[in-house]
Predict the 3D structure of the following.
Amino acid sequence: MADDDDILIFEDDEPSDTTPKVQAKEDRYWKVMIVDDEQDIHSVTRMVTHQMRFMDLPVKTLSAYSGAEAKQLIKENPDTALMFLDVVMETDHAGLDVVKHVRNELQNTQTRIILRTGQPGQAPELNVIVEYDINDYKEKAELTSQKLRTTIYASLRNYRDIQAIEITKHNLEAMIKYSHELLHEQAIHDFASHVLSQMTTLLHLGDDALYYRTAQNSDDKEVLVGIGEFAAFSDNKLSELPTEIQDELNEVQRTQSNLYYGDRYVAYFKTAEGSEHILYSRGKPRHEFSEYDQHLIEVYCHHVATAFSVFHHKK
């Protein structure tokens, strides 16, 4: 059976010069950094992570063989989800120095750090957990392949949730700002974008999403707002979207139901007045939504549509 990633192609067979292009997302993956001066540790960890996927994205490893290399590598890759960090490398406390560097100098509090040591006496577990901002402490001998996989999955979940909290905080601040500035169309677009970003984060949807409304007359723009790579589609008509997205929007409109297309989720909502609203999201695997999740999508569509409607009536 083909993997979902095999169908992450949005380009037309014969692309036109005027149709916006949406690139496939092969570059999305979870970064796991291995910091250890033993080559065997890198090899074993890579074997365990080979073909691992979390939320339908692959897990890829980065390698550093000293504390100094680790400091440079994490600076270049601040979006590292998990770091397996040896305590004893070029010095007896090289790993602990890396922890201080990541947390204090780089101000990186999101990357999950798990210390691994083959010499537990060098850094007593309790002291390290109390004094250093790490997330776990493991002896190398105890990390069997199964336990290593379990540790990675648990750490990636924690990293995902921390990211969601940070993005939600940012968007709440933006919502407060724009709620006092809904006096012109650009402010409404900014407000709708931030709320859409917050909602897709809370529901663990993709980073690329758009809110589409069926046109009530020929002057209406059908895509009201987009985020991520879909931000370029804000205010576009259906005919201006890539062919594949047009087809999927037309299908969900025809069936009037929520649909999944690999890593794309398309939510359909129809108001009592008969206007149709669609949330199109790309970047995360299929998963079922609760009634509350569906209600949240409907509330978003309703209130954003109302904001645009009220503004245009005042013009």
Q: What stands out?
A: Helices lie at 39-49, 67-76, 94-105, 125-131, 145-179, 185-202, 243-255, 291-314. The chain has a mean pLDDT of 78.
